[in-house]
Amino acid sequence: MTKKILTTPIKSEDLESLNVGDTVYLTGHLVTCRDVAHRRLIEQKRELPVDLKGGAIFHAGPIVRKKDDGKFEMVSIGPTTSMRMEKFEREFIKETGVKLIVGKGGMGPETTAGCQEHKAVHAIFPGGCAVLAATLVEEIERAEWQDLGMPETLWVNRVREFGPLIISIDTKGNNLIEQNKASFNAKKQPVIDRIKRQVGFIK
Amino acid sequence: MQRETEITALTDVMAKFTSYIGKRLPNDVKDKLAELRTFETNPLAKTIYMSMADNQDAADKLDRPSCQDTGVIQYFIKAGARFPLLGELEDILRNATLGATQMGPLRHNAVETFDEKNTGTNTGSKIPWLDWEIVPDDDSALIDVYMAGGGCTLPGKATVLMPGEGYEGVTDFVFDVITSRGVNACPPLLVGIGVSTSVETAARLSKRAILREVGSHNPNENAAKMEQLLEEGLNEIGIGPQGLTGKNSVMGVNIESSARHPSTIGVAVSTGCWAHRRGKIRINADLSYEIISHKGAVL
Ligand code: SF4
To answer: In what residue span(s) does the Fe-S hydro-lyase tartrate dehydratase alpha-type catalytic domain sit (chain B) (predicted)?
Structure first.
């Protein structure tokens, strides 16, 4: 099985054939961007210090170490819950032209609509795999908005075959996590009923 | 002076052990994840299990905490009444947490409630959290260390059912918690259930339940049967690693219980994520120690 690799800058055509559940990897630049960065752009109308057109963002707050030569080293970088950015993401995609959003867990209908309108995707990086992710960062090239503190700084990472990234929202309006939730709920009741028939311990 | 040296030595051991368990999973969890990976047939789920294994290898090699969320530190202590440093243990464990925070390094996860300030040390009012049981006629201490991450703590829930709702109501409660809130807690989960008399007794037992080994069984026949039924039933839903569907949902279901008031059924659920970072260590009266959870561990 050959790895499907996306390279920044990502074009709409690169994403149109992707479906939810596909696994891809990213080579190029991946910028950490979470709560406050979203808020500054959308609510406070401030310009982002990084051009994200065709770019990729990561909902993550990393642990970074400053080396003796003044450069930064990525120690640990795990995804944070993407749903917190749901409120802003549709507009964020529109404003920035970002093409790939990486995080943990699913996102809601607003982001799904944004992805469909502007041909972008949301992908899940497995939670708890923060050291693996750190080893896939080749170099931290820049650090913007450092006034936000380590978790919220926009860390511009050069990455090579960063993944696995599981497409959870594609460009066609599909949302994997919503589909999964519906399937879990559909399967649940018969299982519960069967167990209940066997646990009548109170006679 | 002798006593001072002993205190320093035990603090050092517990600091190192606390830091250690943030980097390496206990044997039972590691084995279970390997088993789930082997039997998984869904290619996407298999890929995720592989990433988890790669991550643990990298954490071990690079000596870094395997998940960035190193949790709130909790110690569950079963101390012999004649354990020589019984009265000093609380201070020792607090200092061990401070030490581990430097050593790990651990993320700063202690926020003073109402002041809403992060203490920056992983210590604060009643944190690290200590849970005590005193064992009469014993001079050793058995300590479970647990890193309670945010994601895996969030699904936690407790309630009191009417007896008429019975164990059928317990079943409903568990399924509801796991399918609604457990999906985002980095499955496959270790599900701990407390069945008891009130919310706080059930909640405490549910936490004790996830400290029990994966694959162990409740000694009571009915409880063990319920563990198995719930485990099979949850697996049938196929939540899979990270909630992305797969052959299984959980690493296991452990139930702990106590007697209860005839008019109540207290029930609680606690969950441990796939990166279930806990460790068990026995400290003997001469302060020699034995690490039970991680075979061959060197501090
Ligand atoms: S749920 Fe567990 S593995 Fe997932 S991010 Fe939280 S602590 Fe890490």
So the answer is: 12-281
